[in-house]
Amino acid sequence: MSNSRSSTSNPGWMDLSKYVATLISFFRRLRIRAFRAMGGGDGGGAEEELTAQETALYDRQIRVWGVDAQKRLSKAHVLVCGVNGTTIEFCKNIVLAGVGSLSLMDDHIVTEDDLSANFLIPHDESMYGGRSRADVCCQSLKDFNPMVRVDVAKGDPSLIDGEFIDRFDIIVVSCASLKTKLFINDNCRKRNKHIAFYSIECKDSCGEIFVDLQNHSYVQKKPGVDPKQMELAYPSLQEAIDVPWKSLPKRTTKLHFAMRVLESYELSEGRGPGETSLSDLPAVLARRKDMCDRMSLNESQIPTALLERLLAAGKKEHPPVCAILGGILGQEVIKSISCKGDPIKNFFYFDAADGKGVMEDIPPTPAD
Amino acid sequence: MASAAASEEAVKAAKVLMVGAGGIGCELLKTLALSGFSDIHIIDLDTIEVSNLNRQFLFRKSHVGQSKAHVARDAILKFRPNINIKSYHANVKDSEFNVDFFKQFNVVMNGLDNLDARRHVNRLCLAAEVPLVESGTTGFLGQVTVHVKGKTECYECQAKPVPKSYPVCTITSTPSKFVHCIVWAKDLLFAKLFGDKNQDNDLNVHSKDDSSSNSDVFKRDADEDLDQYARRIYDHVFGYNIEAALDNEETWKNRKRPHPIYIRDALPEEALKQNGSSGGCNKEHEEPSAMASLGLTNPQEIWTLAENSRVFMEAFKLFFEKREKEIGSLIFDKDDQLAVEFVTTAANIRAYSFGIPLHSLFEAKGVAGNIVHAVATTNAIIAGLIVIEAIKVLRGDYKNYRMTFCLEHPTRKMLLMPVEPFEPNKSCYVCSETPLLLDVNTKETKLREVIDKIIKSKLGMNLPLVMIGSTLVFEDGDGLDEDEAANYALNLDKVLAELPAPVINGTKLTVEDFQQELSCSINIKHREEFDEEKEPDGMVLSGWSAPVEKQVNSNGENKSESSSSSAHGTDDTVEDISAKPGMKRKLDEISETKENCGASSSAQVVEDNDDLTMLEEDPMLKKKRLQ
């Protein structure tokens, strides 16, 4: 897990045992806070009415999703692992919407690079110098909506444990390796409690969202049709990326395949997410050939130009794309908490080059 | 990458104008600042309200009452002090924002909330030849369009929805939907009691024991105590008026007969108790609220007839006790709690009479205030799409311009659906020179009516000038000398045929707005008969893209159906997406284009035919998701 970190981002690197000990003591403190956040001890019931203050503040959105959704929202706890321009857009959206609590996990010390897409990091180095991304963003997010509890969860997403995860209803992961994403997704699925898992990445003008709601039931409302109770069963991230490509419909977004090639390359080379450049192109093309051969896909389904764009992007996020992805993810999380509206199953892709925002169902749900 | 560098250069060098610093505006300003834009001008007329704070994230509670444009600017400069943002707390229709002002910008981006201002900005952008990126959102729906003179259609090339209006008799005598009751309560009853007394009002003002036709039952007698007055009004509008209407048997042949309601029946046990109690629980510093003084706390609850009656009486009295000075000049405002309480309960009592389901204060407020449903996420997405299009515009990448729809239910897997922009509409009176045709009775219609009902209200001109041949018969605006002004005022009250240059069948009018740099010709056709119901203006304008009326669903849940209010008063978002008549056309066309000529940039996606039910997302059918 340490190979994916750049050494500058974690000064004072401790040995593992010390690190874990710190983590454990931290979790203990956090658990108490989380308990309070969840209304432990003060008996916050689901039947409570919204206060006049809440009704006034949330008036316009209650007109969109209703009072019940607003109440559920105010009881949901969200963890975001990885603070970047894209996840900060998401955080802004759900804090404004009035989620119960939001915890940010990202110990990386803020660098100048973070300023390019993250609007919560002030320009002045004296205000962010030496502080973690989560820490710097936490305060501004609190200001957005005093009714939402926002805090920092120190630690390493690749080490979070099941009990910690149980504090949350929603976990969003970004700027993490495939390995970490699989680890967290797997953990979410093992818990007795229902925990929705999302991963989100922006690579310059392209973006991907993955959704795992496990078993999700919700009310579908369509114009002219009576509301319908629906059930969806989601595959895990591992299952979704293991789906043989030849079994996917021909019109599957090329970005899906391209992202898998890149992810597989980063994983085997021990690179962190986005730690690639155009110089990796020959090796990535070899990886494409290898994967396409293995899964009987024509290589032309993954255009070289697209791979070039993704490699050149590296860690760069294009702010308009952050806004779009963070907006879509915000809506998805609101849908899943409120159990209202068709959620994305299970990938979403956006590419500013053609302007399409496309959903992919992988593996495809068999038509009845 | 070369293209990335080119974008960066274009963005850095650009000077851009944002109109609107509301829901879309806040998101847009943030995304522009992050994307490298460094010279941004921003105009917004509004001040900040509490109900903005759930999505206009640059604003805090402490900013309520301040200028949106200024506060948004300051908030962004805190994080990115090195960019130049100029803010104007002003109306974009002010004369300082003329064509020369617009010419200084490389692109204009709209995040507006009303049709009027959108049309105005469209005209200025056409005149100044500055590209316009237009946008709007409603709930989870949104759209971004690009308008570049000569390359794509202008904002007005396609019909735009106008607020729905209702036949007068539906409102005054035969309501069948809750919205009819709201319109009655707001535009008739509220206006009659608390608004400008000189305004026309269709309420029946005659009481049964009143033989002289001059007296107005709504007037308070000199010695009348407030409670008596309130009861008298209640009985008149909910009791006597209904009974009077029932006398007309013809009306009820095919309709359900309404029941008159009198205060003694609605609140039997409280005949005296209420007297003088009002206001007792209201603290002086708080905004008076009838709900609060009666101990009702939940605006989501549907009140009984008795509760509605109680709140109605209380609200009525509170207006006279706490806000007497405003009486005579009040205009309904969705943020005026007492006014909302009054209108809600009056509408509910009337609805009860007519067997129409009652609604909560929260719902009634939405209907009465034409409130647009708004969430942060859609605004953020739309702002992102605006910036993507603006960058293309700055690079002159016109082959890749797209209009994009943000959908709630995916269409062909797409939640964000780009569509190629359309060419200019050759018969658009705004961006082409096609003359319009006006059917009018030239012997009876006054110039004033043509100016108000056609030139200002339909053609959206701000400061019009009217010429007949070379004779100037009217001009609006400052800078006229007294003689001219007096002359024009005289002309206003003349019928068309008697103007200094007579307007008769076949006359051609030239109408201009200098500020908008818009000029168009109207050919006159004399006609004497007009259908009162279908052609209420007594005039018919054709040859333009006539607005489409919005549909109202069975609950009356529509955001724009007032008979009097314009698109003003909506929140920060759009009115036009909800009735996008062009959408079906667009979607159909795009599916055709794609199948017929797969040459566009998106042709790499293999289209299949199994899901061509394009209009499952028809925004006209879906309104808010309120239970």
What does this structure look like?
The complex is a heterodimer of chains A (368) and B (627). By secondary structure, chain A is an alpha/beta fold. Chain A folds into two domains: 62-239 and 317-360, NAD(P)-binding Rossmann-like Domain (Rossmann fold, 3-Layer(aba) Sandwich); 242-313, no CATH class. Chain A has helices at 16-37, 52-73, 85-97, 125-128, 133-144, 162-165, 178-190, 237-242, 254-269, 281-294, 304-313, 319-338, and strands at residues 77-81, 101-105, 149-152, 170-173, 196-203, 206-212, 215-220, 228-233, 347-351, 356-360. In chain A, a hairpin with a 4-residue loop joins strand 9 and strand 10. Mean pLDDT of chain A is 86; it is low at 1-19 and 25-46. Chain B is built from 18 helices and 14 strands. Chain B is globular and about 80 Å long. Chain B folds into four domains: 2-161 and 373-419, Rossmann fold; 168-368, Arc Repressor Mutant, subunit A (Orthogonal Bundle), CATH 1.10.10; 436-542, Ubiquitin-like 2 activating enzyme e1b. Chain:  B, domain 3 (Structural Genomics Hypothetical 15.5 Kd Protein In mrcA-pckA Intergenic Region, Chain A), CATH 3.10.290; 581-617, no CATH class. The two termini of chain B are 51 Å apart. Chain B is an alpha/beta fold and 627 residues long. Strand 10 (356-360) of chain A pairs antiparallel with strand 8 of chain B, so a sheet runs across the interface.
